[in-house]
Amino acid sequence: MRIADWPENERPRERLLKLGAGALSEAELLAIFLRSGIAGTTAVEVGRALLTQFGSLRRLFAATLEEISKVRGLGPAKYVELQAVVEMVKRALSEQIGERDAMSSPRAVREFLQLTLGGKGNEVFVVLFLDAQNRLLASEELFRGTLTQTSVYPREVVKAALRNNAAAVIFAHNHPSGIAEPSRADELLTETLKQALSLVEIKTLDHFIVAGSRTVSFAERGLI
Q1: Rounded CA gap, 114 and 214, in Å?
Q2: What angle do CA 187, 115, 19 make, to 5 degrees?
Q3: For the chain, first and last CA: distance in Å?
Q4: Res 173 pLDDT > 90
Q5: Considering 68, 90, 124, 130, which has the largest number of Cβ atoms within 10 A of its Cβ?
Q6: The pTM is what?
Q7: By the 8 A CB rule, do 163 and 198 touch?
Q8: CA-CA distance, 75 to 68, in Å (whole number)?
Q9: pLDDT at residue 34, as a whole number
Q10: Cα→Cα distances 3→38, 40, 142, 159, Å
């Protein structure tokens, strides 16, 4: 049965208009994004299949064109649309961090980092560059590594911070293993970077580790 033939109070679009987007399941939200299903399958069923295949919205957002194209009925057009949606959300969160003290907007920072790092299959090191009021100036992926490690060079971090005229920074990297706990190597790296940046009077405010749906803050752990 087509979604158009469903009772009105069960159709995703009508439910969103009546109850708001928060009332819809992830599969229903995906159905609205997809707009239509494929032969013999409704958009909601395609949405459920996507969630089953990728495991979560986070992993779906991070999927490559090749991975998306393996799903029957999807291809480059849907991949482009999905990436446009993800990028708009990231920019909205970036604007929010840029308009106020990042330390007073921890949820926005975490959500931004989840979208940026959450679904990546290899380790990536990102730096958020902040002004004197801790507002976001820029976000840059400085280093990319393997499944288990990334080489981070303090000299390059300092150069990037100076280039962005930053007064403070927040570091972030992901653990593709799904284990969010900071390692001793993570702690030593953070201290090394903090000391290097202090020589040019740039503060290190925090270091986040993103792993799956978890985000761990060094500042909250007393490690900064």
Answers
A1: 8
A2: 135
A3: 57
A4: yes
A5: 130
A6: 0.69
A7: no
A8: 6
A9: 83
A10: 12, 11, 45, 55
Q: Read off the pLDDT of each residue in 79-98 and give the average, rounded to a whole number.
A: 82
Cα 102 from Cα 181, distance rounded (Å): 23
* Residues 6+ positions from 64 with CB-CB distance below 8 Å: none
Which residue reads 């998306």 in tokens? 68
The tokens of 94 are what?
């970036």
Tokens of 65: 């064109």
Residue 6, exposed/middle/buried by CB under 10 A (0-12, 13-18, 19+)? middle
Q: What are phi and psi of 111, to 5 degrees?
A: -65, -40
- For residue 117, the surrounding DSSP H or E stretch is helix 106-117
**What is the pLDDT at residue 207?**
95
Going across the sheet that includes 136-144, the strands are 136-144, 124-130, 168-174, 203-211, 214-217
Residue 44 host element (H or E) = helix 43-54
